[in-house]
Specification:
It is built from 4 helices and 3 strands. It is mainly α. Strands 2-1-3 form a 3-stranded antiparallel β-sheet, with no helix packed on it. Strand 1 and strand 2 form a beta hairpin. It is elongated.
Amino acid sequence: MGGVIYIGTKRIGIPNKTNEMPIFASNFDTEIKNEVKITMTTWDIATYNFNLIIKCKLTDGAKEEWQKKTFEAILKGYYNQLAEYNQSIAEAKASGIQIIDSNPLFYRQIEQNVLRQNCISYLLDHSTNPNNYKQFGLPMYDTNATFTNFQVNLDKKMDDYGSFAKFMEQAFEWNLMSYNFYPYYWANKDEWKDLY
């Protein structure tokens, strides 16, 4: 008894007079794409069975092709969404809705800077006065200075102030700030109408 198995273009012979099919491990020199064709020819065999386990490796060409298709799909999705966005903006403007063209994160940054400044002021002396540097005996510069004679006083007081500013900016993780704005009704009643 015997036979031949063809996997793709590779020929694997089945030896004669064996009770069990031997295990074959084989590598393919040529690329196989999309499907693997298997043909088996036998003679003088009443029954037989076999398993085929295939381990595939992605070729560089197939990877580049996938990357190109994926990139094109991402670009197509982006342009579709951009067109929808532009259309909705045009419709809103046509209906008289005022559109503010700005990045909303810009306003969040302003909020956080103001809150940060207020926190530092309260930590210093419970005052929102921005001139807290006066506790160091500064002014840091001549208040009568003009553009032609302006100069910063570089002395021990300025060093102390710089160290203090550095501490206040770096001792707290300001980038992890969390805050909530409460509704208008927690403000002064006289302001409710405007705030509402």
